[in-house]
Amino acid sequence: MIQVSPIRRIIYSSTAVTDDSRADHLAILGVSRRNNGMDGISGILWIEQGRYLQLLEGPADSVTDAFERIRRDPRHTDIAVLDDRMTDATAFGEWAMAGLPGDGPSDAKARLRHLLRNSDAEIRRFFPLH
Predict the structure, then answer these.
(1) Which pLDDT value is given to residue 117?
(2) Which CA distances in Å does 51 have to 6, 36, 113, 119?
(3) Is pLDDT at 43 greater than 60 in this prediction?
(4) Dist CA 64 CA 67 (whole Å)
(5) Which of 11, 56, 102, 117 could form a disulfide with 83 if both were Cys (CB 3.0 to 4.6 A apart)?
(6) How many angstroms from the chain centroid is the CA of residue 13?
């Protein structure tokens, strides 16, 4: 019998510290994709007007460790956990970390809507889709 680890999902927001949040966003995406792929974590990272919004999901221990690293990251402050729950399945299991730097706000919003199209309403309600 295969033992399935519980899936933990955290959604949080935070405030970027620097004015160059786009460069930070790209750097964070690169590191996240590498680390999360090794740790079995998936999710999505959104930034808009100096605010980060991120969903992390995966094995409970891996998500806990990743979120502790995130809390210590000096590139953001004012971290607020919006949702923290155990769930049966991942919503973004195919991505180590989806990100949306976009060329412009309308392009990024369209891509965000596309990425979230199959997620449930409990997830979509946290993201600015309009």
Answers:
(1) 78
(2) 29, 21, 18, 22
(3) yes
(4) 5
(5) 11
(6) 9
Would you state the pLDDT for residue 64? 94
DSSP state of 42: E
Q: Write down the residue that tokens 């605010």 correspond to.
A: 51
Contacts of 130 (CB under 8 A, 6+ apart): 109
Q: Choose between 32 and 57: higher pLDDT.
A: 57
Distance between CA atoms of residues 76 and 55, nearest Å = 15
Tell me the per-residue pLDDT of 86-111, one tens digit each, with 9 for 90 and over: 998 887 765 545 555 544 555 667 77
C-alpha 35/C-alpha 2 separation (Å) is: 25
Please give the single-letter amino acid code of residue 84.
D
Q: Given 3-state DSSP classes, what are the helix, strand and coil percentages for the chain, each rounded to the nearest 5? A: 35, 30, 35
Q: What is this structure's pTM? A: 0.78
Which amino acid, one-letter code, is at 125?
Answer: R
Which residues are CB-neighbours of 111 under 8 A, at least 6 positions away?
100, 102
Q: Distance between CA 6 and CA 110 in Å, rounded?
A: 32
Structure-block tokens of residue 45: 């990272």
For all residues of the chain together, what is the average pLDDT? 78
